Amino acid sequence: MDTAWVQVFVLVFSQCAAPAGKTVCQEQELRYQFLDRNECEQVLEQLLEHKDAAENVIVNRDKSRCLPTVRSQRVFASVESATKASAGLDGWGELPAVRERTDFISEAHQKRLDELFECEQTGGVAPCKVGNVIVEGSTVRKGEVWVQEK
Q: Which one, of 63, 65, 59, 64, lies nearest residue 148 by Cα?
């Protein structure tokens, strides 16, 4: 086995996604690797078009880009030598069947709602809820304002 340096292109995709019916979104940064710059840029354009159509996602175009980089890669002479060297390692082998994704954000929000009292019952003492809105204690924290481009 040898070590080689392989040039890759990292697609950084910055977005702010909100659960259905909510106005506050969670900032997320997704990263994908490509061996070809054109493929990276093509996927970036497709993601931008797809996300622009979503009502609950705002894309930060200034932070979304394709960047060249290199990474260290183990190189094997054959599939057999790779299998031999990796035998017994966790995660090595056939990929498991893909499970259907669950909406963990909505599930976590609903679980938290179920645990809280109405703000009228607590006299406005946070944390509490007003309908489906969770009211947390105030904190001083700098935040970014995301604006939907039209």
A: 59
Render pLDDT for 46-87 as a digit per residue (tens, 0 to 9): 998 888 888 888 889 899 999 998 877 777 788 788 778 887
| Helices and strands (DSSP H and E) totals, the chain | 4, 6
Residue 40, exposed/middle/buried by CB under 10 A (0-12, 13-18, 19+)?
Answer: buried
Q: For residues 76 and 1, give the distance between their C-alpha atoms in angstroms, rounded to a whole number.
A: 5
Domain boundaries, the chain: 1-86, 103-137
Phi and psi at 52, nearest 5°, equal: -65, -25
Q: Please write the tens of the pLDDT for every residue from 125-142.
A: 888 888 888 888 755 556
Helix-strand-coil split of the chain, %, nearest 5 = 25, 30, 45
User: Which residues are CB-neighbours of 118 under 8 A, at least 6 positions away?
Assistant: 128, 129, 130
Secondary structure element (H or E) that encloses residue 8, with its range:
strand 2-17
